[in-house]
Design brief:
alpha/beta; Rossmann fold; two-stranded antiparallel ribbon; binds zinc ion; binds adenosine-5'-diphosphate
Length: 194
């Protein structure tokens, strides 16, 4: 029996990969196209990622779009307007463990949710909550950078300074893209004598 559709279907798209792989560029490309189609778009990033601009998501190639800062994923949910059709989220790895559930709620309300974020940390370990989001997303795009050492496809973010902080928001020269052969997590380890 055909069930009449009363609600527009929503879904979750995830764009993930290493730093410099073009996640923000791809997110901005999709959001711009939605705006051109006159869809109502809202864009969010976590409050503490203010590296480039307080009120924009910005790519390393300097593409930018106005965004709203939110302290956590529940605050994001509260800030989404009823008539928003597309919700873009950058730096998903800096959100809390509620982000997958918040994205589910938005998609269940009929919204297209697009999340960009790192899939691995500087040690190559899965970077929560992105792995959870990958499991529940309808669409996944894995982006790769170019290894700055050898030119192969780069799936890793190499930290170039010694620090054991998982979140070390980078000044220029703190990170670079590397392939699996050139990636060396030991480069970021703090020497015992330090
Ligand atoms: P991400 O969001 O994944 O960190 P961005 O979208 O911010 O990536 O930036 C992608 C841009 O970074 C590329 O278009 C290019 O201009 C620049 N870039 C710098 N280093 C590299 C690299 N090693 N490989 C590919 N792109 C790089
Ligand atoms: Zn390499």
């Amino acid at each position: 029996m055909d069930v009449p559709r009363t609600q527009k279907a929503g879904w979750i798209e995830v764009i993930t990969g290493s730093m410099f792989s073009g996640k923000s560029e791809e997110l901005i490309r999709r959001l711009r196209r939605a705006q051109i189609a006159r869809q109502k778009v809202q864009i969010f990033k976590p409050t503490f990622d203010n590296r480039f601009s307080d009120h924009h998501i910005v790519s390393h190639s300097d593409m930018r779009m106005a965004s709203e800062n939110v302290a956590n994923s529940r605050a994001l949910l509260a800030q989404v307007k009823d008539d928003a059709e597309v919700v873009g989220i950058d730096e998903g790895q800096f959100f809390d463990a509620d982000l997958p559930e918040v994205c589910n709620e938005l998609a269940n309300k009929g919204k297209r949710v697009i999340v960009a974020g790192l899939d691995q940390d500087y040690l190559g370990k899965p970077f929560e909550p992105m792995p959870h989001l990958l499991a529940i997303a309808e669409y996944i795009t894995k982006t790769l950078a170019i290894c700055v050492v050898c030119g192969n496809p780069a799936n890793h973010t190499q930290r170039l300074v010694a620090s054991q902080d998982r979140v070390l928001v980078g000044a220029q020269g703190t990170y670079e893209a590397r392939c699996r052969g050139c990636f060396d997590p030991a480069l970021a380890s703090v020497p015992d004598s330090a």
